[in-house]
Design goal:
By secondary structure, the protein is of the alpha+beta class. The chain folds into two domains: 227 residues, Zn peptidases (Aminopeptidase, 3-Layer(aba) Sandwich), CATH 3.40.630; 92 residues, Peptidase M42, domain 2 (Elongation Factor Tu (Ef-tu), domain 3). It has seven helices and 19 strands. Helix 1 crosses helix 4, helix 2 packs parallel to helix 4 and helix 4 crosses helix 7.
Length: 338
């Protein structure tokens, strides 16, 4: 088990090191594609850029999906003072990014460092605190620019992508701290699952495929899936917070979110698998959540659906999980497919 947990940790660091705000995911999907190919699989791309791969097995196809796009921002306009006005990509909370380092990536391939700040961040200057909402946020490039013309001369333009520093750390006590654990932690878990299947050659209970999606953060990552899919499980983050049973050290099985209840039989089968595997799990309801599999349902696919994931605290913030949550999620998936 330890070798696979170590591998998942390594893959998490590799994935978070690749900037991939939704709409800017080519580099991260190329990494996932190449990693799967090097294992001996035959992955392929969908037209929109999702990566799909079949692990093996036959009949009653099961699809496990995780997304590799993240929250981020885009250049909305360049101000007269040379600073950038951003617009959010996905459900970004600007209060959590105030003071964060960032990258601005131009269409010509240039990358500039910068910092995200509100319009008056200095405690010794401001008469009162400025609310960190989108209209008040600026990107200050680490370049000597004081005018719109000087920023444009760098090659920065409207539509360029802005990525926040993930600051990924795995502590000796097993805690995982990073931006974008939603959902690169579960993407790393699925890569670990693929490695386990290739190494151990377990007898799979059905045809099992993986789907690494893009555009999940804006609601349509899973709108196209393989036609033969009978069951689909989103492997995303488990919510940790008020009125929820999950912690960072558990695997969460979601019974209902903002899109309604998950398939009763699939949820029940996941619970039974968790009991067989003797993993630490929670069953929860997420009031402000949507997943890739719901995008598939809304696109008209006739499938059974479920949602699981390692517990992640402070979602859409600087997030925190634990390797125990990874272990419980990984073990549940192994039990469910074999």
């Amino acid at each position: 088990m330890k070798q696979y947990l170590d591998y998942i940790g390594e893959q998490l660091k590799a994935l978070t090191a690749i900037p991939s705000p939704t709409g800017y995911t080519k580099q991260v999907t190329e990494y996932v594609f190449q990693t799967l190919a090097e294992m001996g699989y035959e992955p392929h791309y969908s037209k929109k850029g999702n990566v799909e791969v079949t692990l093996g097995g036959s009949e009653h196809p099961l699809l496990l999906a995780a997304h590799v796009d993240t929250l981020g921002a885009m250049v909305r306009s360049i101000k007269d003072n040379g600073r950038i006005r951003p617009t959010t990509l996905g459900g970004h909370q600007w209060a959590t990014a105030d003071g964060e380092n960032c990258l601005v990536m131009t269409r010509e391939g240039k990358i500039y460092t910068g910092v995200v700040l509100n319009k008056e961040p200095s405690a010794h200057v401001a008469d009162e605190n400025v609310e960190p909402k989108e209209a008040n946020m600026e990107i200050l490039l680490d370049e000597n620019v004081t005018s719109k013309e000087e920023t444009l001369a760098l090659g920065v333009q409207v539509g360029d992508i802005i990525a926040m520093d993930p600051r990924t750390v795995i502590t000796e006590s097993g805690y995982i701290k990073s931006r974008f654990l939603d959902d690169k932690l579960s993407a790393a878990i699925l890569l670990g699952l693929a490695k386990w299947v290739k190494d151990e050659q377990p007898k799979l209970s059905r045809k099992v495929s993986l789907l690494f999606t893009v555009y999940e953060e804006v609601g349509h990552g899973g709108c196209f899936i393989p036609e033969d899919t009978e069951e689909m499980i989103s492997v995303d983050m488990g919510c940790v917070g008020d009125d929820l049973e999950c912690t960072e050290r558990k695997v969460s099985i979601c019974a209902k979110d903002s899109g309604g209840p998950y398939n009763y039989d699939v949820t029940g089968a996941l619970i039974e698998a968790a009991k067989r595997a003797k993993v630490d799990y929670a069953i929860d309801v997420y009031p402000h959540y949507g997943s890739d599999v719901e995008a598939s349902l809304r696109s008209g696919y006739d499938i059974r659906h479920g949602l699981i994931g390692p517990g992640v605290y402070a979602s859409h913030n600087y997030e925190r999980s634990h390797m125990d949550g990874v272990k419980n999620t990984f073990t549940l998936l192994k039990t469910y497919i074999s």
